Amino acid sequence: MTIAPLAIVTGGKRRLGAAIAAKLAAAGYALALVSHMDTPPEENLAAALQANASEWHAFTFDLSTGDPAKLLDMIATHFGRAPNLLVNNAAMFGQDDWQTMTPQTLESHFRLNLFAPLLLAQALVQIAGAEARPAIVNILDQRVVNPHQDQMSYTLSKQALAASIRSMAASFAGRARYNGVAPGLVIATDDYTAEQETRLANMMPLGALPSPSAVADAVVYLAQAQDVTGQVIFVDGGAHLKSFDRDFMHL
């Protein structure tokens, strides 16, 4: 009997995380879905898990305060093996700017958006062993190339995570592959109107906003690309090629 590779997806039961998890399920992965609330997977993800007869389990864990090594031990104990893939998708997205950011907003964003991914990666590589070479994929943001004035604590934390790609890939060397995917506006919130989404799509170099499925495809590629490390793939309709003065919701 073939044992399925095991993937951890943080924030993996809803929105973009659910799309990534569904694509990994179709690619034959068993799934450890981590979230800070005990809620069921979104409908599309639940259907994918059922259609692919996926082995999966949900873990309720606060990545901002919990010990990542403890989470890795819980997952390895439950599945009886070390994970092969870590997708650091969970993130905090606050609305501060340079005038309103505080030590508290900075700390809360950096704890979840930077410290948790780094410490989860460390714990995974330690538990996986010297020969396993697990894959780590961090979900970034196209704004790390052309930042603007909005969501300052969030932006700074994602820029720091993006800066970790080359450093951690070099440090892990042959022990792990460490990469990133930088999406653009993928799943609009209720803050956007349909007309605004169309207008934003027309502003992209490719004339369209990226789909969650396209972001998930990039994650699956990096999960399986055995010769790729220290790379960032932008899945953003070309947004990173332009400079925007404000966040998309204000345009």
Give an overview in words.
It is a single chain. This protein is of the alpha/beta class and 251 residues long. It has a single domain, classed as Rossmann fold (3-Layer(aba) Sandwich), CATH 3.40.50.720. The protein is built from seven helices and seven strands, in the order βαβαβαβαβαβααβ. It has helices at residues 15-26, 43-51, 68-79, 103-128, 152-172, 194-203, 212-224, and strands at residues 6-10, 30-35, 56-60, 85-88, 135-139, 177-183, 232-235. A seven-stranded parallel sheet has the order 3-2-1-4-5-6-7, with helices on both faces. The N and C termini lie far apart (53 Å).
Summarize it.
The protein has 251 residues and is α/β, with parallel strands linked by helices.
Q: How big is the Rg? A: 18 Å
Topology-level CATH name? Rossmann fold
Major beta sheet, specifics? 7 strands, parallel
Number of helices: 7
- The ordered H/E elements are EHEHEHEHEHEHHE
The CATH superfamily appears as NAD(P)-binding Rossmann-like Domain
SSE layout:
Layout: E1 6-10, H1 15-26, E2 30-35, H2 43-51, E3 56-60, H3 68-79, E4 85-88, H4 103-128, E5 135-139, H5 152-172, E6 177-183, H6 194-203, H7 212-224, E7 232-235
Parallel strand pairs: 1-2, 1-4, 2-3, 4-5, 5-6, 6-7
Helix pairs in contact: 1-2, 1-7, 3-4, 4-5
